[in-house]
Every structure is written in C-alpha cells, then in structure tokens.
3-isopropylmalate dehydratase large subunit
Amino acid sequence: MSKGTLFDKVWNLHTVGTLTSGQTQLFIGLHLIHEVTSPQAFAMLRERELKVLFPERTVATVDHIVPTENQARPFADVLAEEMIVALEDNCKAHDIRFYNVGSGRQGIVHVIAPEQGLTQPGMTIACGDSHTSTHGAFGAIAFGIGTSQVRDILASQTLALSKLKVRKIEVNGTLNPGVYAKDVVLHLIRKLGVNGGVGYAYEYAGSTFEQMSMEERMTVCNMAIEGGARCGYINPDQVTFDYLKGREFAPKGEEWDKAVEWWTSIRSDADAEYDDVVVFDAADIQPTVTWGITPGQGIGINETIPKPEELSDSDRAIAQEAYRYMKLNPGDKIAGTKVDVCFVGSCTNGRISDLREAAKFAKGRQVASGIKAFIVPGSEDVKKQAEAEGLDKVFLEAGFEWRESGCSMCLAMNPDKLQGSQISASSSNRNFKGRQGSSEGRTLLMSPAMVVAAAINGVVSDVRDLL
Ligand SMILES: CC(C)[C@H](C(=O)O)[C@@H](O)C(=O)O
Ligand code: SF4
C-alpha cells in the first residue's frame, strides 16, 4: 500500500484513468439514490437507450417527500405520489434494491446505508445529495453529486472529478458535559467559514473524534459540506469495526478478517503530508446555536449576536442580511430567543443515539405551551429501536409528537413546514432562508439536546441547566 492520507490511497485505488479534461475518472463502489435527484437521470438513460451497468452497486430509498404523519398510499400530495411511483418503476425496471416505505428499512438515505452495513471503509460512495459526506465517518470517500452525475454513475459506475487537497482538522480533548458532535461541527464551520473547505477533503483527526461513537462521527461528517468541503472523513478504527460487525451487508467470517486488515491499511499514515493542518481544543467548544442564515453564523449559547463592527468585511454583508431576515438584533443574547417549533430529526441528528439523548432531557418534563415540538426518527429501523426502548412514550408524555421516518422539516418537501415567520429550533443542518417550508421561516440550528431544552422552556436555552 502506498503511503499517504486515506483520501489519496482510496482515490488512487479507484482511479480508472485521466480524462482529456484533466479530471480523474473514479470508480464508485456504492451509489445511493433517492426520489428527488434520480428521475431525470433515469430519463436520460432511457433517451440514450442505456442500461444501469452494475445494478447491484445501487441502492434506493425514499425520504424527502414522504409524509411523516399519514403514509397511506396514494400520498395526499399528488407530486409526492408521482415521485415515489417513478422511483418504484425505475428500480423495478433496472433491478435495483429499493427500501420502500413500510419495508422496515426505509429512511433518510444517509441513515439507512450505514445502518445496513452498506457504507464501509475505503469505499467510494456517491449520491445525488449534498450530505453524502456523512458516509466519510467510516473512512469512505463520499461525494454529493448532481443529476447528470447520477446518470453517469448509473451508466458507467464512474464519476469525473478533480482531485482535492486534504486539510487535517485536529480536535483534541474531551468535550464538556452538554457539548455534542453537533456543537463541534458548528464550531468548526464558524471558525473556518462556510467556504473555508472549498477545494478540500476534510480529514477529522485527534482524540475528540477518536472518542466519538460512529453516530457522532456521522453528525460531524454530515456537515463537512456546510463548511464548503467536497467530502469529510475519519480514519477507520476499532469503533468503526465494532459498529459494522454483524450488519447485513458487512463482510462475514474469513472475509471479515480480510476486510479489517484492508480497512486498517488505508488509514492515513502517521507521516502523511497534508495541504493544510488546523488544530482546535475540545475544551473551547460550547453548546452552539446559529443565529443567522448560514451554518457558519453560530455562537456559543452564552454569547451575543455579533455586531457589524466585530465582523470581517466579508462576514458583515451576510450578517446585515441575516439581522433583517431573522428579525434579530446585533448585541442581543441568543439565549432567551422565543421559538415556535422544535424539530429533532434529519440525517444530521435523527439517529437512535440522538433520540436517546433527546429523551434524557424530555423525561419527566413538559413542552412549553404554544410550542409545536416533534421528533422524527431518521429511519424505520431507528423508529422501531426507539419504540422498543420506550422513547416514544417519553416524548409523547412530555408533549412531543412522534412521527414516521423521513427528512420532514429539515427541508419541508413534504407536509412538515414552518408557517409565516415562525422560528424553529432544529437539529438539522441548514438554516438557509426559506429552508423549512415558509419563505419567511427562520431556523436556529443546534444539537438535539438543545432543541429539547428550547421546547421545554419555550426559548433558546442552555441545555447544561437541565443536566
Ligand atoms: C433534495 C436534495 C437534492 C438536497 C441536497 O442535495 O442536499 C437535500 O437533501 C438538502 O438537504 O438540501
Ligand atoms: S434530512 Fe435534510 S439534509 Fe438530510 S438528506 Fe434529507 S433534506 Fe437533505
């Protein structure tokens, strides 16, 4: 095995050739598809009379458009029904494995692939979805792609890409109580900027990530894209192997031992060279909340909304836009901001450990009056597990709604939407203008525990006061 970073090793091993454009033609081991970005890709295949080259390397699910309350078919939304039918038809026509609603395996694409053991170290993974970087938590190189690239992969199992630089982001030390993986990634985006990662793959290294569970690592890698990086990853270790062992698509028997050996060999070498290295201290990270309209506009729960004069020229213009849109004032504390809706879910924080953590804070408490609070498991499997543990009851007794799995209000391509200028405390990953379904809707990103704290108090609160 050549020396270097995991990124370089995996890239080199999957290189088919160099295109005349100078880009690399990269073999893609696993292709994940969903209902939003696949229909036109299949239509383009049909036009050119092409087949799916390796149907066994593509796996489909439906997540963005599924209602989380009434999932009876046909869906009430005609467009949503058309989209699920198109996916059903395309998967059938091309012999593609499809985890449909009610199959027991449906869920947000970035939740189900790890759950089934499809996501493995050293793989190249692509999906027509920006948060594909999530899979990097396993030491895979995982790219979000556009619809024409979905077509390319269906037809050729390869992707044309320019090689990336690699930045090592080291975070060391133990996180303080009440500080989560979500806070780590919001902190990193705040410090490095939403465009800081452009042209880079992010390698997250250091003892803080080593101490994290796979689900926490997924939360971090999920938002690599929000920091501008094309992908993000963590070197595979015993935590990774323990998570994968026994999952449906994980290697078994002798194959398992061989796989672990190979997965270990693709880790970045101690003397690997990086294009950039930045180092952070876990002790400096506070429970973090975004106050603006980009995931980089985050502050510690005890901080005040930055004043224009405290910001760099480039941050000032977007801050001015954010004050107006968010109806929040520079210099004000973020703690105490009244919220209307509290949402725990999404591919960032809709996994079982997120729900367990949320339930810890919800137990024996009540959602404040006038607040709409709801919990959306990231997959049917997460829902089943949560119910087996009685988490649904904890949430229901506390006044939360308990839903079916899907993307829900993360993006609101389904009935879960903010109304008017409602403001949400949300465990999702994007706070763009209008993101949660209303053109004036406002989103405050935070950890699931902080969402529950906001639901209980009716205002943005420090979860550490509930510890
Ligand atoms: C609908 C889909 C293409 C989109 C994405 O690419 O990320 C969505 O998942 C999102 O989070 O904005
Ligand atoms: S949960 Fe949100 S971020 Fe994740 S895939 Fe769905 S819409 Fe995109």
About this structure: The two ends are 47 Å apart (CA to CA). The CA atoms of residues 34 and 61 lie 5 Å apart.
